Amino acid sequence: MNIVFRTDASLKMGSGHLMRCLTLADALKAQGAHCHFICREHPGHLNNFVLERGHSLHVLPFIARNMLDDPFVPVHAGWLGAPWYEDAEQTAAVLETVQPDWLVVDHYALEKRWEQEVSRHCNRLMALDDLADRSHYCDLLLDQSLGRTSEDYHGLIPDACRLLLGPSYALLRPKFSELRARSLASRKNRSLSKILISMGGVDASNATGMVLQVLGSIVDPNWQIQVVMGANAPWLSDVCHQVELMQCFTQLLVNTPDMASLMSDADIAIGAAGSTSWERCCLGLPTIMLILAENQRLIGQRLHEAGAAFLIPSIEQIPALLPIYVENLHSPEELTRASKNATVFVDGIGTQRAIEAMMK
């Protein structure tokens, strides 16, 4: 079986779309599929990750031309790096060669018109979305957002399209489900000591630096802090300097391959909302969650309302809210409560559910 993925990573859009596609591709490959990626060479791209995972890569050139004056383009059209019809033509040329059974599209800049153009060159089309803000032309649509309902996509998809909705379909790597039972069992008698900070692969706004600055003012010398960043993060060198000045054990990890183990071992996380939220929920990791992009707001608000995370709505509110939340989480009872509230949403096998839906 041939599967093609059309997705991108960049300094502007981050790495989340590519990483969840890689998770799905790795699982499909383990079941005998051949996976191919079509990715544009944006500034800050992570195309090398595709090759390192053993998948085929087809690179589209970055030409920095958009169709933002087109009233029908999506809100995030500027993320594509080309007019949609040129992207469709370039993608179709690859599809004609590969002849895929499935084309998986994960890109906020692409919508129904693009999907209609390329659908003639694949047997089935699957869209990954979180926004429900534009029309799709697809056979299967996966939206892992908490609280998402079929009504949100009313009028946006074909009648025959099957919807896979909610975090039970969260695309997580196998290591998370493997560590789930151990991680949950270990959270019964924890106190606040190990703190994991992760704002995604890019963190263009330097939320990591702001968090470290605040933690430095309330630091407990017994804390053990691990900071995770991507190699393309523009503030990496500044954060490295801050880490050296912290008055407790603080470690900076770049492009770490084992986030599951880091999350399992941590007592709390301070991190961005987004797809990594489901990784933390799977392992019952209490989280102080930051909104770093508008498309993260729905996840953050709903997890906060469910008592599964402590929400900081914007980076400007880090100095005011972070010390309060850290103080609250010094309570073992509060740690346990937050952990239990998080675990109910994700069991770690959403990737397999998605694959079963594709096979049907």
Keywords:
360 residues; alpha/beta; Rossmann fold; 2 domains; seven-stranded parallel beta sheet; six-stranded parallel beta sheet; 13 strands; globular; hydrolase activity; hydrolase
What does this structure look like?
By secondary structure, the chain is an alpha/beta fold. The chain has two domains: 2-165, Rossmann fold (3-Layer(aba) Sandwich); 175-343, Glycogen Phosphorylase B (Rossmann fold), CATH 3.40.50. The protein is built from 13 helices and 13 strands. The chain has helices at residues 16-30, 47-52, 84-98, 112-118, 174-185, 207-217, 236-245, 259-265, 276-282, 297-305, 318-328, 332-343, 350-359, and strands spanning 2-7, 34-40, 56-60, 102-106, 124-128, 140-143, 162-165, 194-198, 224-229, 249-254, 268-272, 287-290, 310-312. The strands form two sheets. The chain has a seven-stranded parallel β-sheet with strand order 3-2-1-4-5-6-7, with helices on both faces. Strands 10-9-8-11-12-13 form a six-stranded parallel β-sheet, sandwiched between helices. Strand 1 (2-7), helix 1 and strand 2 (34-40) form a beta-alpha-beta unit. Helix 1 (16-30) packs across helix 13, helix 3 runs parallel beside helix 4 (112-118) and helix 6 crosses helix 11. The longest helix is centred in the N-terminal third of the chain and has 15 residues, at 16-30. It is globular, with a radius of gyration of 20 Å.
**What's the main sheet like?**
7 strands, parallel
Strand order of the largest sheet: 3-2-1-4-5-6-7
In N-to-C order, the SSE pattern is: EHEHEHEHEEEHEHEHEHEHEHEHHH
Contiguous uncertain segments of 5+ residues: none
CATH hierarchy: architecture of the largest domain: 3-Layer(aba) Sandwich
Q: What's the mean pLDDT score? A: 95
Supply the helix-strand structural class: alpha/beta
The whole-angstrom Rg is 20 Å
Global outline: globular
CATH superfamily of the largest domain: Glycogen Phosphorylase B
Could you tell me the CATH topology label of the largest domain. Rossmann fold
| Strand residues, percent | 15-25%
